[in-house]
Design brief:
4-stranded antiparallel beta sheet; elongated; disordered N terminus; disordered C terminus
């Protein structure tokens, strides 16, 4: 059977995407319009939770308590402020009882209780001027949010002698969802015009600048439609929309930058439009394809985790990467076919160049500045390799002190009503409400057995007080108040002690600390699988791109090293609270458990994105010349400006996302912006070239069987590698060059 080489495959691809460019663009316009319709209202169908493991003991216990003892799991709290009088004042008490009875009669509300009914100390503030009505809104997040929208306006505000504020978990989640939607719209309004300005600065041509932006918009709208379909099948986190916008713009612009830049290079070299498109797809197109695969794999690794918060980012990420790559590889070439040399039209920088000599063409990407910079890096390779490696490690050291916690109301801005309510409860009510643990007991038991079990768990280290049991049939529950903070180490130890305590009935433990323990266990159990998937597939893809065994290993190690600054900054800023004033957030002293996993997967994929851009150009030149050092310098000279521009644009998008008033979104946006800039400006510009220079021609080594495998299945830019690139020849004296005689 005759072998079909890469050029023939790409040739067929070129003919496919350029045969009828007008028809292709018209079809894209129709599909995008349908995506706008299909994706409308997607945010309203998303949830704001998903941090807990669905198969964990705490999740089971929570659902059982919601079903059997709804009063034990209130998600709606009405905070009644009596002003200057006591909550026990007859007029205050009468109005409070009336509100309690009215709430108990509302549809979809159950488990209503208040301080005035039970005189429970935990429901009365220590100063005696505030007290609580607690209830549970039934249904899933969407249903509960709709009920809250109906009830909140009726109960919020002045009622006779009391002022009512609405809080509780359902209010926190609902307000968080609303704020995220508003912040995302604002971020898009910031990112789009700034991105367009930067693209004009990069390309000069307004026409060329609009192409990447168009690809990004198509990717975002298409992903929203995909997510809308996924919400019909499973839970999706509202936070995933932020990733859709960031990656939709960022990756689409990266890919379009690479393709448009290469197309303009070919035009500047004298190629005709169809020939330029063909060369662009054969070179930059394949790079984009490999880049999209590496990013998609990094994001797909989050599917191994049970928390739907993480899985949601995989759904959004895979969809946006695929759509961005598809638009860049199908729609963009069709547009370039129609534009041809007019892609350079509307050069907005001409007015700035009047009266001055014409600068070198930016289309070639061979700027003298990057050439001099590449020569400096290669000349001082040992220094740059050591200094950058040590510096990155030092920047990551704060992460050694990371403490994991759970997201709570302090994610919200200080003015948010639900946060204000929770802070009043946290600071003014006895016994740290909301930080307790519940022990569900299932199975027939006698009062004596319940009493004996209660005595034993009350004696556990870390237990301050035990209430209960509250019995219903053959089920009961105990409330255990920890001695310390709700998610501290002592509270987590108490969870483990409660679970280890023998009982004459089946027990399961839930509560904030129990959810954290289970979430950490679920992540620790699946993390090796996620990392393994990312590493193995990345090694394979980079090998297929380069044909080298050592370059994939180098790529994985240096990519991981590029993330140290992000993780160090996350702990130093968001856990320890540095810069909390200027950045307008409240530090809780810990990091939500799933965030580092999410940030690793996203940032690693984006680092590989830039890594593939650099390596592909180095590989192309090495295949052409066989000169290792020249190829490294050539790759940095021709992609350094492009990678830096792409990184700055993506960082702008991520910073726009980081302006969110929700702390986790702020952390995600600013953290990944830092990772992207460090990767492009330090790792790709300094560390990778210096390490490749130090490794020399051994960089391209692969055993004979793998070389044969690469010749059969590999895809790389340029023509097939010469035989000299497959072996490590004896170096010529004083030169790092593969000669034609080897």
């Amino acid at each position: 059977m005759p072998q079909v080489n890469g050029s023939e495959r790409i040739g067929g691809w070129t003919r496919f995407v350029t045969a009828r460019p007008r028809l292709a663009l018209l079809a894209a316009l129709v599909i995008t319009a349908l995506a706008v319709f299909a994706g409308s209202g997607v945010a309203d169908r998303m949830g704001s939770g998903g941090w807990e493991s669905p198969n964990a003991e705490s999740t089971y216990a929570t659902k059982a308590l919601e079903r059997e003892f709804p009063a034990s799991q209130p998600n709606l709290l009405l905070l009644l402020d009596s002003g200057g009088v006591s909550v026990d004042d007859p007029a205050v008490a009468a109005e409070a009882v009336r509100l309690t009875e009215r709430l108990a009669g509302e549809k979809d509300v159950t488990g209503v209780g208040s301080y005035w009914q039970r005189k429970a100390p935990a429901l009365r503030a220590e100063d005696g001027r505030e007290a609580l009505i607690a209830a549970r809104i039934e249904g899933d997040e969407k249903t509960a949010g709709e009920v809250l929208d109906r009830l909140a306006p009726e109960y919020r505000g002045a009622h006779g002698p009391v002022e009512v504020s609405v809080g509780g978990p359902v209010a926190v989640r609902h307000e968080m969802q609303t704020i995220i939607q508003d912040d995302l719209l604002r971020a898009e309004m910031i990112a789009l015009p700034v991105t367009l300005v930067l693209l004009v600065m990069v390309f000069g041509s307004a026409v060329a600048a609009l192409l990447p932006l168009g690809v990004g918009i198509v990717a975002i709208l298409g992903t929203n439609a995909v997510l809308r379909g996924i919400t019909e099948l499973t839970d999706v986190s509202v936070f995933a929309q932020n990733l859709t916008t960031a990656l939709g713009l960022g990756l689409a612009i990266d890919y379009a930058l690479f393709i448009v830049r290469r197309f303009r290079e070919e035009l500047a070299a004298g190629a005709q439009t169809r020939e330029a498109v063909g060369t662009t797809l054969r070179t930059a197109g394949r790079t984009v394809l490999f880049s999209a695969l590496t990013v998609a794999v990094s994001l797909a690794a989050m599917l191994v985790f049970p928390q739907y918060f993480l899985r949601s980012f995989a759904y959004a990420g895979i969809a946006v990467v695929v759509l961005a790559a598809a638009a860049a590889l199908i729609l963009l070439p069709a547009a370039l076919m129609l534009l041809g040399p007019r892609v350079n039209s509307l050069d907005l920088r001409k007015t700035l160049r009047r009266g001055r000599a014409e600068p070198p063409s930016t289309a070639t990407g061979a700027g003298k500045g990057w050439g001099r910079f590449a020569a400096l890096v290669l000349r001082r390779a040992p220094l740059f390799a050591v200094v950058t490696s040590v510096g990155l490690v030092l920047l990551g050291l704060p992460f050694l002190g990371v403490r994991f916690g759970t997201a709570d109301d302090r994610q919200l801005p200080a003015s948010a009503e639900s946060r204000v309510v929770q802070e009043h409860i946290r600071d003014g009510f006895p016994g740290s409400p909301g930080g307790g643990l519940e022990v569900l007991a299932e199975g027939a038991a006698t009062p004596a057995q319940y009493a004996e079990y209660r005595s034993r768990i009350a004696a556990l280290p870390g237990a301050l007080r035990v209430e209960g049991p509250v019995v219903e049939g053959e089920s009961a529950y105990f409330s255990v108040l920890p001695k310390e903070a709700s998610v501290g180490e002592e509270s987590q130890a108490l969870v483990k002690d409660l679970r280890a305590e023998p009982a004459p009935f089946d027990t399961s433990v839930t509560g904030t600390a129990a959810v954290l323990v289970d979430s950490k266990a679920a992540i620790a159990d699946r993390l090796p699988w996620a990392v393994g998937i990312i590493v193995v597939v990345t090694l394979l893809l980079v090998f297929l791109l380069t044909g080298s065994v050592l370059i994939p290993l180098q790529a994985v190690v240096l990519n991981a090293l590029s993330l140290t600054a992000m993780f160090g900054a996350v702990v130093w800023v968001f856990q320890d609270g540095h810069l909390s004033g200027p950045l307008a957030f409240t530090s809780t002293g810990d990091i939500e458990t799933t965030l580092p996993v999410l940030m690793f997967c996203v940032a690693f994929g984006l680092s590989m994105d830039y890594g593939v851009f650099l390596l592909s150009r180095i590989k192309e030149e090495y295949d052409r010349t066989g000169d290792h050092e020249h190829s490294v310098a050539f790759g940095l000279r021709h992609t350094g400006g492009l990678i830096t521009a792409a990184a700055v644009i993506l960082a702008v998008v991520m910073v726009a996302i980081g302006t969110s008033r929700v702390t986790n979104t702020k952390m995600l946006g600013l953290g990944i912006a830092l990772a992207v800039l460090m990767d492009a400006m330090v790792v790709r510009s300094l560390l990778v070239p210096s390490v490749m220079k130090l490794m020399g021609r051994v960089t391209w080594w692969a055993p004979a069987p793998l070389r044969a495998f690469h010749r059969r299945f590999g895809l790389s830019e340029g023509e097939p590698a010469p035989s000299a690139a497959e072996e490590i020849p004896r170096p010529a004296a004083g030169r790092d060059r593969v000669t034609s005689g080897t």
